[in-house]
Design brief:
- This protein is α/β, with parallel strands linked by helices.
- It folds into three domains: 215 residues, Aldolase class I (TIM Barrel), CATH 3.20.20; 99 residues, Rossmann fold; 139 residues, 3-Layer(aba) Sandwich (Rossmann fold), CATH 3.40.50.720.
- The chain is 33% helix and 20% strand.
- The strands form three sheets. An eight-stranded parallel β-sheet has the order 7-6-5-4-3-2-1-8.
């Protein structure tokens, strides 16, 4: 179950949002009465309520908005109990002062916005002594290991426990709590009005993650990155899982570089079956894999890991997707030396460019690399026996293929382009790995000149479809995935990122 927190300044607005949520399927709401900017009328909020309610009134010291006296706050909480509210949220330091009364159920809560303490179990034991019907613990996550500790606590608890890790690192705990047996998780009414760090909106929880369908048997997939909040992979993979009604969920995992080793060890305990891998882990993840496909060895980077009984297998679908997209646009088959005699210039020397240089050289193209950091161009060129050119000279050569592997032109800098339109030729194939917007300035100008064009969205969907096949053994619903992404990156919903 999802409990949706509502915090508005007026009773009328709070009631309206409550009604709207119930119409959308919500079964439990938390009314944050500390947000109301006038005298609180519990009767107006509770009479004829359309679904069960938690009344919560947070002090400023607990990151709430209550500015009145503590005596008046506790009086308000007692009055809510007398009014017969379904649940009352009581912080651990006052739970012993407010006795049980009537049918109202008691949530005894503790919030720690600094850390996830090492003594979680001892804290939980103490809260259980305060006559709770439900225990709630919310702490700040600084490591992915905090999520596992919190979820294990939820799973082992004898008294129903809501355990949440806050912050971007803690986001998985909000989704996986259903898999570990929590009575509910928390969401906010709208993604722009979060009440705690890392909180999802109700629509995100229901439409993207299908939270209500998650159970102990749900298989877990995800993307690991740092940062990870920009990733659109959860949107398209969960849409594909939902299309086939698979009991699987795909989650963003923010994993700092120094935590990769411990995170991989914890994957089986979290129920993780496979991962998409992006910056900064594409190279380091290989050390955790027992099977590595040829492309991963050649590139020195993986973007997909599947956990199997014999160990982990590493793949690179960026390479396959990029090459097939370009060859298809050029009317060529993916056969050896398909690009023999073709000259290509790649702008940028990052992770995507590495996969592209490998693929282009493998298919016989003559590759030149131009990067704003020339030392990185030189390093990449030595690895794949390519050439380099100074960044300022990138538009001077004669090339059959032009590939942008930089973020230039990405939202919000949509008026930027990495290549002078006057140097474009109608005979060229132009590939921009940026997918937001799909029609970058480079793509628009290339089409105006008459070039064959491959967009970043083409590559992104193709690599995700290949990942889906590795995850499930089934062909991906690529068109569904593409339309889900296009809707999300429309003008009203900008998103950054050029890879999974």
């Amino acid at each position: 179950m999802i409990c949706v927190s509502i915090g508005r300044g007026r009773h009328r607005m709070m009631r309206a949002e409550h009604q709207h949520l119930v119409e959308q399927g919500a079964k439990l709401v938390e009314l944050r009465v500390d947000y109301i900017n006038r005298e609180v009328s519990l009767k107006r909020l509770l009479d004829h309520r359309p679904c069960p309610v938690i009344i919560t009134c947070r002090r400023e010291s607990d990151h709430g908005k209550w500015s009145g006296t503590e005596a008046n706050r506790q009086m308000l909480l007692r009055a809510a109990i007398v009014e017969g509210v379904d649940y009352i949220d009581l912080e651990d330091d006052i739970a012993g002062k407010i006795p049980r009364y009537g049918k109202t159920k008691r949530i005894v809560s503790l919030h720690n916005f600094r850390e996830t303490p090492k003594d979680l179990e001892a804290i939980h034991d103490r809260l259980c002594q305060l006559d709770p019907d439900v225990v709630k613990i919310a702490t700040m996550a600084h490591s992915p290991a905090d999520n596992l500790r919190m979820l294990n606590l939820v799973q082992d608890a004898k008294i129903p426990t809501v355990g949440i890790c806050m912050g971007e690192i803690g986001m998985p705990s909000r989704i996986l709590s259903a898999r570990f047996g929590a009575p509910w998780t928390y969401a906010t009414f709208h993604h722009e009005r979060t009440m705690a760090p890392g909180q999802f909106s109700y629509s995100q929880m229901t439409e993207i993650y299908r939270y209500e369908q998650i159970n102990a048997q749900t298989e877990v997939y995800g993307v690991i990155a740092d940062p990870v909040g920009h990733s659109m992979s959860p949107l398209i993979h969960n849409a594909a899982f939902g299309h086939f009604q698979m009991n699987k969920v795909y989650i963003p995992f923010r994993v700092p570089r120094e935590d990769l080793d411990s995170f991989v060890i914890s994957c089986s305990r979290l129920g993780i079956k496979a991962l998409s891998v992006t910056i900064p882990h594409k190279e380091a993840i290989i050390g955790h894999c027992t099977q590595v496909e040829d492309a991963v060895e050649g590139i020195g980077a993986a973007n997909t890991v599947v956990f199997e009984k014999g160990g982990a297998a590493a793949y690179n679908t960026d390479y396959t997707a990029a090459m097939h997209s370009m060859l298809e646009a050029m009317g060529l088959s993916a056969v050896p030396n398909a690009l023999a005699g073709k000259k290509a210039v790649i702008l940028g020397a990052g992770g995507v460019s590495r996969a592209l240089v490998y693929g282009l050289t493998k298919f016989g193209a003559e590759v030149t690399i131009a990067s704003r950091t020339h030392a990185r161009s030189e390093e990449l060129a030595r690895r794949f026996r390519a050439k380099t050119v100074a960044w300022d000279d990138r538009c001077k050569g004669q090339y059959d293929l032009l590939i942008n592997g930089t973020p230039i032109g990405m939202h919000p800098n949509v008026d930027d382009t990495p290549f002078d339109k006057r140097a474009l030729k109608a005979s060229q194939t132009v590939f921009d790995t940026v997918y937001n917007p799909e029609r970058t300035l480079l793509v628009k100008e290339a089409r105006e000149v008459g070039c064959r064009v491959v967009t970043g969205l083409d590559m992104f969907i193709r690599q995700a479809a290949l990942q889906f096949h590795h995850f499930t053994g089934q062909e991906a619903p690529a068109e569904l995935m593409k339309e889900s992404l296009r809707r999300a990156i429309g003008p009203a919903k900008p998103v950054t990122g050029a890879s999974s």
